[in-house]
Specification:
Strand content: under 5%
Number of strands: 2
Radius of gyration: 27 Å
Shape: globular
Helix content: over 70%
Largest sheet: 2 strands, antiparallel
Distance between the termini: 48 Å
Number of domains: 3
Number of helices: 20
CATH architecture of the largest domain: Up-down Bundle
Structural class: mainly alpha
């Protein structure tokens, strides 16, 4: 029961921390880390023992799957050059540069272990950056950071596993590791795509037979990232890349017919899962802080001198990571700018090059994936032999996460002063054009004669009713065309009418809901009827959108 109580307490704290972050102008990850540290204070004494393999398996696959699902694929392809330079080139640059520095600074950490630590410090967390920037970061830069976070989660953690294997076995061959890396990466990507495609085919087969219950399909989606991860690991491929590829493939398969209810439920469930898992990871970091500090100072006579030295090491490693990132970003950003000018293309963003480089540098916040990866370091190196400096590795990773969050909290608002967020006019224009074309297609379909529209018996009243219904639908779609008219006056008039209609519909829906509650209080209807009708009313209200 103690484990169940602990899980419930942590989930409650995840929700409370979200409310606190709305009141206090502090990024949510920092609030959750502080909450975990307070909960682990000796007077409260909440302690959570983490199994490294279970931690890695439980948290990483769904988070990486959700990242792959959510990432805008068109922007990912359009910005593939800078994203790949950051997600692959910067990871290798960081592993080599930071790895040698860590080994020089802390000779007790063997070189393969230092490479492993540098690799696990490479992945970035775009969710934390978005929370800090509060949608003020220019859209292209935010997309680059999101794409980098998606890709370097995989490249950093795969490199981390290779370095960790070298530390455990004591053997490393660059040629063999490079070939194995390619095979493992390609195998993981292929397995993720194939498994996701097979699940999509299975769902299509189920839908064709009327088995379209949303809960069943959502359960399949929840199990897919874990299945992709386990299958790839069993076959010797990258489970991390397999989970990412499965998520990216599933975003294409999410447009299955007769799945509107499933999509609504699926998005809600995954938003909840992603929020809860990200929050739990940062809470667990806070909970582990006292134990981490105690572990790195347990062999020393006094606490503060030793802790001060360790904090100095963390600051030094963090500064080196920042310098390496800035050097790489500055070099590649200028190179890409020159290349785009040579091809006659516009720059990626209107923000000056120097400020763009600093925004991309400070935006490289470490977060959940780094913590999940370092927590997966095995407890034992061999039979009865502890993994060397495991507690110190976790302490350094936790310190770098905290410092990167603090640096971003201070530097990003300063760098974003005077920077206008990229205009979304092109996106709005594309949305208007899409709505216009879909409305025209609907009108054309309604204008065509369909035998199914005609009544089975030649009844004049039914034929007139069908004509009236068709005219009403066509009028509604013509109104959609007026909404997306390029004329500012026409758009203003249409928006005014839309807002009036929205208010009337909301008034009617709320009256229906009140009547439903009254009937329930008078026990004239049962709970099953309440749930069914209330669900439809809520869906209708959600479709009306927020107030404008």
């Amino acid at each position: 029961m103690q484990t169940a109580y602990t899980v419930l307490i942590l989930l409650m704290l995840v929700g409370i921390s979200r409310l606190v972050a709305r009141v206090i102008p502090i990024p949510l990850p920092l609030v959750q880390i502080v909450a975990g540290a307070v909960l682990a204070w000796p007077s409260l004494g909440l302690h959570v023992a983490l199994d490294p393999e279970l931690f890695l398996f439980l948290f990483l696959p769904p988070l990486l799957f959700a990242d792959g699902w959510r990432m805008p694929k068109r922007d990912l392809w359009r910005l593939r050059g800078p994203i790949l330079m950051l997600a692959v080139g910067l990871v290798l640059f960081t592993v080599v540069g930071a790895g040698y520095f860590i080994h020089w600074l802390l000779p007790s950490i063997a070189l393969p272990v230092a490479f492993a630590l540098a690799a696990v410090l490479s992945p970035t967390d775009a969710v934390a950056v978005s929370a800090i920037a509060q949608d003020k970061l220019p859209t292209p830069l935010m997309r680059i950071l999101q794409g980098e976070a998606l890709m370097n989660d995989a490249s950093g953690l795969v490199t981390f596993k290779f370095a960790l294997a070298a530390a455990v076995t004591g053997y490393f061959s660059l040629a063999q590791a490079s070939l194995t890396f390619v095979l493992v990466a390609v195998g993981g990507l292929a397995l993720g795509v194939v498994l996701s495609w097979l699940v999509g085919r299975l769902r299509l087969w189920m839908i064709a037979r009327g088995w379209d219950d949303p809960a069943t399909h959502v359960v399949f989606m929840l199990l897919l990232p874990f299945a992709a991860y386990v299958l790839a690991e069993r076959l010797g491929a990258s489970g991390i890349l397999s989970a990412v590829a499965a998520g990216m493939m599933q975003s294409w398969l999410d447009l299955l017919p007769r799945q509107t209810s499933t999509r609504l439920l699926n998005r809600s469930v995954w938003s909840l899962l992603e929020f809860a898992f990200n929050g739990l990871i940062f809470l667990l970091l806070g909970l582990q802080l006292p134990d981490i500090i105690k572990a790195v100072t347990s062999h020393e006579a006094s606490l503060w001198p030793t802790l001060g030295y360790r904090l100095f090491d963390v600051v030094g490693i963090f500064l080196v990571l920042v310098v390496l990132r800035f050097v790489w970003v500055q070099s590649t950003w200028r190179f890409i700018g020159m290349l785009r000018r040579w091809r006659g293309k516009d720059t990626i963003t209107l923000v000056p090059t120097a400020r763009s480089c600093w925004l991309l540098t400070v935006g490289g916040v470490r977060g959940a994936v780094t913590l999940a990866g370092v927590m997966s370091v095995p407890l034992l190196l061999g039979a009865g032999q502890d993994f060397p400096e495991r507690d110190l590795l976790i302490f350094i990773a936790a310190g770098v996460i905290l410092l990167s969050l603090l640096a971003a909290c201070i530097a990003l608002p300063l760098l974003l002063r005077g920077v206008e967020r990229s205009s979304d006019e092109a996106l709005r224009k594309e949305v208007r054009e899409t709505w216009r074309r879909t409305a025209e297609a609907a009108i054309r379909a309604l204008e065509e004669e369909d035998p199914a529209d005609k009544p089975a018996t030649p009844d004049a009243a039914q034929a007139a009713l069908a004509t009236e219904l068709k005219a009403g639908l066509m009028s509604e779609y013509r109104h959609h065309l007026e909404v997306f008219n390029d004329s500012a006056e026409a758009q203003a008039q249409a928006r005014l009418m839309d807002e009036l209609e929205r208010r009337l519909r909301l008034r009617a829906l709320r009256a229906q809901r009140l009547e439903l509650y009254n009937l329930r209080r008078q026990r004239q209807i049962g709970d099953d009827v309440v749930r069914e009708i209330l669900g439809e009313l809520d869906l209708s209200e959600a479709n009306l959108g927020p107030a404008r």
